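Quick one, T. Sequence first:
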Amino acid sequence: MVVDAIRRLPDRFGGATVVGAALLGGTEKVGAAGPDYGVPVATGDTPDAALRAGLAEHRPDLVFDLSDEPVLDARTRLRLVARALAAGASYAGADFRFDAPPRPHLATKPSVAVIGTGKRTGKTAVSAHLARVLKERGTPPVVVAMGRGGPAEPELVDPAVFDLSLAGLVALAESGRHAASDHLEDAVMSGVATVGTRRCGGGMAGAPADSNLAAGVTLANGRPESMLILEGSGQCVPPAHADATVLVVPFTADPELVTGHLGAYRVLLADLIVVTIGATSLAASGLRASFEGDVGRLVQGVSAAPRIVRVILRPTPLAPISGRRVFYATTAPPAARAHLAAHLEHEHGARVVGSSHNLANRPLLEADLAGAGDAEVLVVELKAAAVDVAAKLALQRGMDVVFCDNRVETISGDGSFDELAAEVADLADRRFAS
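Structure tokens:
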């Protein structure tokens, strides 16, 4: 039956050529000499290993699944889908099809993608820190940020000429613009030129349903900077080829969703995995100790396994707040309240008299700010309602406003983030040149 099904595949797919098969299991009906399917057969100790061998040998455009229970359950099958998509092949079966997300070569200079497993992972903080690392070594990049609140047409923001002051951002908000869009945050925090683009929706493997990122990359290509940083949005991957990829994984992530199902696709794209931790102990996180082992097993057979670094994001005001009474507004969860306040007090000399973790919820944020008491300074992340609600209300109360970065501080891993970031940039340079 399998032989007959294979013979019918060319007709099913408009004259396609079957170049090989991967034997995933179910050998109880196969003789000692192995199956004769009329095409070369790849094998392995596991279904994943067999598919990996077939992909490496034949580099197909499409994988068609003729398997079934009990050889494949739904989780194993989705992991095979992820494997195929990462190799640039579509994956189809009797009643489903996954196509590799389009990632055309658009950049005319080396590029690094910064992607995440979802929203609020720390992508923007990691992108900004990567940009600062490159800027400090004399090779500033241009960032192309893709966000749900990005501009309808790609917008270039050059800190040298664009008004990124508090007054400038408030004026932008009053004109009806989203003044805390990701590309504005990148420009403020990193000091490098950024291009803002937008996207809508997101597929299971990270393809946006609609995006103007391609036009943004074209705009960035005309800049003098020697490298592009392509910043994803939520779990969406920028729909453009990148020469190297950084994957940001929050400490709260479900390990099964990070390395299993279609989450494996993002891991297989990664050259560097940054685990962002909200507390000083990895043991307190959702990522179990075997995370590195899960990644290692997933990338078996890959020429270079991704490096892993664990970092903590530290609130870092962009102006001095020592000795001042501070109200702190953030998108971080309430569970991080004590830790973040302690850092602002111990490292920056402030006295935190109030806080809000509702920066992304305008009605609750307004209520929190109404109870700001005797705070004289609003320290706020440049995200969500930071400008149109938080900054405007603080100014009305006579408070000063200081924007706050989330700086990357290495805890442990395969090296410091700064070193690994530079290595990823160098890898992108080499791959682009080849």
